[in-house]
Write a structure and sequence with these properties.
The chain is mostly helical. It has four helices and two strands.
């Protein structure tokens, strides 16, 4: 993955990247999403895939508005590759795939 820049300081950026790749964190997220799906059975509420990003939204890249909201259009443009990974027919190993509810 390429560097995105942004305002996250070096040590914090490294910490986020380490957490994003940590298998215990990934397993916890997968488990929490599976519980969510079990409690929210409607297709519009179900989470099928997730990706833990190695960086926070960037205020410098205008991903965060002055009021603190995520600027969805810019975030999606800037993170297009990550979005494509989520919707790929065969997702890569970093994409967390949550099983279908039983």
């Amino acid at each position: 993955m390429g560097q995105r820049g942004g305002t996250t300081p070096g040590p914090a950026r490294r910490c986020l990247a380490e957490l994003a790749g940590n298998e215990s964190v990934r397993a916890h997220v997968r488990s929490a999403l599976a519980r969510w799906n079990a409690e929210h059975r409607g297709s519009s509420e179900r989470v099928a895939r997730a990706l833990i990003l190695p960086d926070a939204p960037s205020i410098d890249a205008n991903e965060i508005t002055d009021k603190g909201y995520v600027n969805q259009r810019l975030a999606l443009e800037r993170r297009r590759t990550d979005v494509e990974r989520l919707f790929a027919t065969a997702p890569d190993n970093e994409v967390i795939v949550v099983g279908a509810p039983t």
